[in-house]
Each structure stands twice: as C-alpha cells, then as structure tokens.
Amino acid sequence: MEITTTNRGKPCLMLENYRFKCARVTRTTKEWRCTTDRCKARCTTDLDTTIVIHSSTCHDHSSMTAEDKEKHKIRQFCKRKATDDISARPSKIVCSELRSTESLD
Ligand SMILES: [Zn+2]
C-alpha cells in the first residue's frame, strides 16, 4: 500500500486510487476516512498499514486519475523545492516542473 503525506504532514493512505486520512488509532488497528469530507468511505488497517482488515469503500465521487496523482506529486515536490530555495518564485518552479513532466510523454 502507498502512504503519502497530506499538505499538513499527516499520513495519507492511497487505496484503489482514493486517498484516506488517518481518523483514529487503536491498540491494534488504524482507522482511515476518505479525504473527501462528505464521503462515507472508510477502511481499517493493521498498525503498520500493511493489511486492509476491513473496508467500506463506497465513494460518492470519482477516484484520482493517474494525472491527478502526478499533479499531486509535482505539487509536493514543488513545495519542497520552494521551501529549499525561498528566492525562487513558486509559480516559476511549478511551470518548469510541469513542462519537464509533459516532455516525458
Ligand atoms: Zn471517498
């Protein structure tokens, strides 16, 4: 399973192209909720987030496409870059990153 972090640095679970945020941690499990607020989808994993113990992934919205995921990655990458180099304008960094991704196709 793929674990990323949210903009606020919280763990974020990627399951079937949907993102889940950690809602609760018990002694043996972690409970995750879909990052879309109105969505009722939930899942439960073990503490190491290696196995899905239970999931009710009845989302009422579409999943992230490969393109969305790529954009998300670029955004995170740009944010890091922008933090590393505060003299560079964020918009400039985003533009150059988007261009370099497009040229890979
Ligand atoms: Zn959802």
Automatic annotation (TrEMBL):
Keywords on record: Metal-binding, Zinc, Zinc-finger
FLYWCH-type domain: residues covered: 4-61
InterPro entries for the chain: Znf_FLYWCH
Pfam hit, one: FLYWCH
GO MF term set: zinc ion binding
Name of the featured protein: FLYWCH-type domain-containing protein
Lineage: Eukaryota, Metazoa, Spiralia, Lophotrochozoa, Mollusca
